[in-house]
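Researcher: I'd like a structural prediction for the single chain below. Treat it as a standalone chain; there are no partners to consider.
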Amino acid sequence: MTADEFRRQGRAAVDWIADYLESCETRPVYPDVAPGDVRAKLPLSAPATGEPFERMLADMDEIVVPGLAHWQSPNWFAFFPANISGPSILGELLSAGLGVQGMIWQTGPAITEIETHVLDWLVEMLALPEAFLSSGRGGGVIQDTASGATLCALLAARERATDFAVNARGVAAAPGPIVAYASEQAHSSLEKSMMIAGLGREHLRCLPTDAAFRLRPDALAAAIAEDRAAGRLPAFVCANLGTTSAGAMDDVAAIGPICRDAGAWLHVDAAMHGTAALCPEFRGMHAGLELADSYCFNPHKWMLTNFDCDCFWVRDRSMLVRTLSVMPEYLKNEATASGQVFDYRDWHVPLGRRFRALKLWFVIRHYGVTGLQQFVRRHVALARGFADRVRDHPAFILTHEPPLNLVCLRHVDGDERTDAILDAINASGSAALTRTVLDGRSVIRVSIGQAHTGPRHVDALWDRLTALA
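Model: Treating it as a single chain, here is the predicted structure.
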């Protein structure tokens, strides 16, 4: 593809994206396809000769879009928002166009330093503890997802807890089984991280929650004491600020001292809801965060930044680097040896890394702090208004007060009726909702956070719910 052809086709691709985003609202949110329908439209073998770009773009309309769930629809209330925006898309495009590798400072000085700076910006924007700033012993890095951040935090916690010396085969000796703790509402990625880290899912304690689905500090303290008495090593606690099913906010201020006294690493996962801390009035959830060893949130959920982009901070970067660093001859260089630079390959599992910070930098600069605050406040206000309607309607039960933008409800007639309502709405294509289970009962989750969701979309969803009630 020549430079001139790239210019021409690039304009066509950008036009296609703009047209798609403008049309999202008119499309059924979930596609009417069966397993195998998309593959049936594809040729059995790859083309022997090249095809024109126009044909590829046409297949986006004929094959790809009809087989998509439209996460960018303003009628998307399922799972969590996966917001994108113009400046983020353009930042992603520029990152792809540069085609640079930022595995160490030497291979991408601008990649590294812009990322460090933007992560320091966010410490101020979210009012995070100053210990997370790169100017001290801490610092931030962009991971792929909160799952990746959790794994890195767990590995660093294992290193700190055992203080192991790795032998030539990379085998570590631990004083006893290493145990991790979280609430029964914690994300499934923690169980997966235990498997990947070689600690075993059987050594993850999923502890009971209170009426608001928050981890009970007394249950945590009791579990740690029991494990210590049995010769096991309490090493890691994951607190959630916004659990997936319920949006529950664990009490970090109460959990932190328990972790400190036990010598356990405290990781705080604020995957979706961390964005709300842009607004001073929602920062109460961060009480006690100064006791955390690590923290993460996902701008690729509720902060208008394309997937993938998880911001992960540590209080002491030396432990993370010690855990994940190896130094083959081909990566040795003067900048690294000087100790004056960050080599972000030592901050996560992969060696290679792309310029993820560019899109985040563009988003922050385009909207500004006040613009992003307005975005968050609009969704929280819509969610609170929706919760008021549920609370006042005789056919529905509000399971708990929504901390921010996730509302959970069920029908008074029980699980079968609740599930039937949710299935009917999803099948209609008019909106997308997700089911979960809280206190043993089926629940409808209404996640209000898609970039273009406004009052009329929430009103329309409410009308569909009440019509089926």
